[in-house]
Amino acid sequence: MDAHEQAPGLVRGEGLTAWRQIADALTADVVAGRYAPGQQLPTEAALAARFAVNRHTVRRALAALAEGGLVRASQGRGTFVEEAPLAYPIGPRTRFSEIVTGAGREAWGDLVASVTVTAGPDQAEALSLPPGAPVLELLTIHRADGAPISTAQTWLPLPRFSGFADAYAARGSITRALAACGVHDYTRLSTRIRARPADAREAERLDIAPGRVVMVVSSVNVDPAGARIQANRTLFAADRVELVIGG
């Protein structure tokens, strides 16, 4: 069948574009349960064959679904139906791995980059350090069943946490990396939450369309002695979590 011929389910010449009809058809498939949450959609080539259109038209339809939060396009892996939002409690003992595994999903954190920097005013205040003190800065991505839930910048005082980056890369967990550095428990001292659009790099790390809303959670953690050990700025994909504030 030629790409310009009418495919089953597509109506030509009545004002509704082909990509919009494809988006509507795929939405109906998801709503009807033909594609389950977390399931991968057929490839662009397979969808183009199904609807007898070119791949550019399919790509436009999938982009619209991603912008609407129905699907997630993962670079090099394909397009997946979004999972139901994860209930994410914010309290004195917030632990990503425990929250995700408690929801029956697999948790893991990827270390994107680590570098030693001098503490800026915000980091110095958060960690009770003199301005210019050395701190370890990490960029991480936190996943549930492979889907990115959040990306974070984390700052820790040096030299106390000089081995933290290697520990995190090996263990995929802030809590387990802190334990490897001798901190076996910690609590949340403060939390601030705001919302804003994601920039292009943040959107790429979270597999969301640029401009989609992210929730920015800035926090400080302390060890059992009350020493400030960690400052975070975490960006959550707003459609993938429900932040629950409580004790």
What does this structure look like?
- The chain is α+β, with helices and mostly antiparallel strands.
- The protein has two domains: 18-81, Arc Repressor Mutant, subunit A; 86-245, 3-Layer(aba) Sandwich (Chorismate lyase).
- It contains eight helices and ten strands.
- It has helices spanning 18-31, 44-51, 55-67, 96-102, 121-127, 164-171, 174-180, 200-206; strands at residues 71-74, 78-81, 86-90, 107-118, 134-144, 147-157, 187-197, 213-222, 228-237, 241-245.
- The strands form three sheets. A six-stranded antiparallel sheet has the order 4-5-6-9-8-7.
- The longest helix is centred in the first third of the chain and has 14 residues, at 18-31.
Concise summary:
This protein has 247 residues and is of the alpha+beta class.
Mean pLDDT over the residues: 91
What does the largest sheet look like?
Answer: 6 strands, antiparallel
β-sheet strand percentage? 25-35%
CATH superfamily of the largest domain: Chorismate lyase-like
Q: Rg, please?
A: 22 Å
Fraction in helix = 25-40%
**CATH topology descriptor of the largest domain:** Chorismate lyase
Number of helices: 8
Number of domains: 2
Describe the secondary-structure layout.
Blueprint: H1 18-31, H2 44-51, H3 55-67, E1 71-74, E2 78-81, E3 86-90, H4 96-102, E4 107-118, H5 121-127, E5 134-144, E6 147-157, H6 164-171, H7 174-180, E7 187-197, H8 200-206, E8 213-222, E9 228-237, E10 241-245
Parallel strand pairs: 3-10
Antiparallel strand pairs: 1-2, 4-5, 5-6, 6-9, 7-8, 8-9
Helix pairs in contact: 1-3, 2-3, 6-7
